[in-house]
Amino acid sequence: xxxxxxxxxxxxxxxxxxxxxxxxxxxxxxxxxxxxxxxxxxxxxxxxxxxxxxxxxxxxxxxxxxxxxxxxxxxxxxxxxxxxxx
Length: 86
Known about the structure:
Layout (H helix, E strand, L loop, with lengths): L3 H39 L6 H37 L1
Helix pairs in contact: 1-2
């Protein structure tokens, strides 16, 4: 069985990995926002259903990334709460 110090160190390492993942999610979200703006500018005034579908898909992807980020924040919070009990 791992010692308390080892357990805390392992949880800290996992939290660091999550933090790195959060940074990647934020970067991906920024890129999606840029893509949405570029697409909107390039296709302004187009009423084609494919354009609307592309906008909807990018919006959904942005919402999914936000939900993922929220879930990771909750996971870190719970891990830190657990470490505080050790």
